[in-house]
Amino acid sequence: METLVIERSGIGGQAGSTERIDNYPGFAQGISGADLADQMREQAERFGVELLIAQTVASIDAGDEDGGVRTVVTESGDQYRAPAVLLTPGTRYRRLNVPGEDDFIGAGVHFCATCDGPFYRDMDTLVVGGGNSGIEEGLFLTRFASHVTVLEVGDRLRASQVLQDKAAAHPQMDIRLNTTVREFRGDGKLSSVLVEDVNTGQQDELHPAGVFVFIGLDPNTAFLADSVELDERGFIKTGTGMETNRHGVFAAGDVRAGSTKQVAAAVGEGAAALISIRGHMEQEIRNRGYAGD
């Protein structure tokens, strides 16, 4: 099989931009997301995979219900045709959607600690979200910031126990549970954050130099429109063998409904989807005598 990977940004997705990954098998001491992504890219190229970088897919024609050729169209107007398509567009960071958020993005409000953390050397910072991403990025910020406060709207952190233990033991980190952001304030640049205790309703005004938001993920599936079936949150529904409701179109990784949003799980899903795709291709050859397009 000849394989083409179309990627709108850099290889590795969110994993590639993660500062450190400690739960991927085979790396006992952990590995940076960038290094892991580079190794995956090199391995794919060694097996002859063609990588098309900085190209955004605009739409997919899933073909008829019985099979045939699927057509992928990029924003530049180029078309790529194949008897099988694997959808792995991943997810993006969710916004808080509170007053002031849009006004201060890039001017005090950020979504990537590895990108913007160095700007806050020896300053106080705030992380919103107590899941794996929030704690990971908060720990990374301690390399630069003098102090990091993590806000979690629930009554406990949602991060793995390993990360929770690291955060609890770190002298530069504090955790505030049952706390949500109500407003970002400032004049051209962030100056304060209004937060509220969700149990008591008491509000406080905090004054961090920067805020980093990690409250979950939304799927990158707007381009799919009516191509495949999505759940109520926009994640791709799949059945047996990672196949969508359209024959010959498969999905894997964070974008798939019910996935665990872990790098190792995404890799495993990709392998499972490939087995199904191989079976699909063999059937296409038998049914249609497919010899390339």
From TrEMBL:
Gene Ontology molecular function: oxidoreductase activity, acting on a sulfur group of donors, NAD(P) as acceptor
UniProt keyword Protein transport present: no
One Pfam entry name: Pyr_redox_2
Entry annotated with the keyword Oxidoreductase: yes
Keywords per UniProt: Disulfide bond, FAD, Flavoprotein, Oxidoreductase, Redox-active center
Record InterPro entries: FAD/NAD-bd_sf, FAD/NAD-binding_dom, Ferredoxin-NADP_redctase_2, Pyr_nucl-diS_OxRdtase_2_AS
One example of a Gene Ontology biological process annotation: cellular response to toxic substance
Residue ranges occupied by any FAD/NAD(P)-binding domain in the UniProt entry: 7-270
Protein family according to the UniProt entry: Belongs to the class-II pyridine nucleotide-disulfide oxidoreductase family.
Protein's name according to its UniProt entry: Thioredoxin reductase
Naturally occurring in which organism (per UniProt): Geodia barretti
